[in-house]
Amino acid sequence: xxxxxxxxxxxxxxxxxxxxxxxxxxxxxxxxxxxxxxxxxxxxxxxxxxxxxxxxxxxxxxxxxxxxxxxxxxxxxxxxxxxxxxxxxxxxxxxxxxxxxxxxxxxxxxxxxxxxxxxxxxxxxxxxxxxxxxxxxxxxxxxxxxxxxxxxxxxxxxxxxxxxxxxxxxxxxxxxxxxxxxxxxxxxxxxxxxxxxxxxxxxxxxxxxxxxxxxxxxxxxxxxxxxxxxxxxxxxxxxxxxxxxxxxxxxxxxxxxxxxxxxxxxxxxxxxxxxxxxxxxxxxxxxxxxxxxxxxxxxxxxxxxx
Length: 306
Known about the structure:
alpha/beta, globular, 10 helices
């Protein structure tokens, strides 16, 4: 009995040590190694509109790390344009560019998420996929860094006017990206907030009981601590930070928004829209957000005032 108890205690100590390592580890080296050195890109044409040429972009570094993206490029050639890296919702990924069709005089690239979720999971299937899901989320940071490397090789990109925009599922990545790569001129967090632990708990609580939502929140917050926005939002400065949020957002509580905004350093600005959470099936809200973003980017000197 004593031997079994000792083995149990050793197992618990090993598990706690592993969790402490995950919690305290600095992932800057991991992000840099994954990013590697840009090697080449493959562009496959797709249907665009009268304003932009749409393509599917595949970027690879020297070690075989691949980033797949949607890409919009203005049809008028011979000019240098601002570039926006767009981190969309979990269901959009590289297809986020489809919601940006019609925006003039800007290059837009949307990286895809490196994990394809199933429609349904059993508990064991989900737990088995947790390491892959976590790795895919962490890999969004080097993916954006490598995408930036590619954009900076293009003759039609004005490298002084790079904007990182994350909305909904893509919003939490923005502070971590800016903390590890200062090449952006503006950072925008759209319908996002800080403290992933309580954000996860809140959203699980909408469908499940208090005990499960608390457990998932604690566990998820620990696993995602390497990209926790609250760890990095102070380091966005001196790059201007723009936040756009909904007053009635059912997924992002106001206290999480205000916590993130209060922690950020100047220059910063927050805009509130009377709305619930942003959704692809609400084109009116999407259009309003795009319009506000354009106005703010004009005021910051990124876009021209037409």
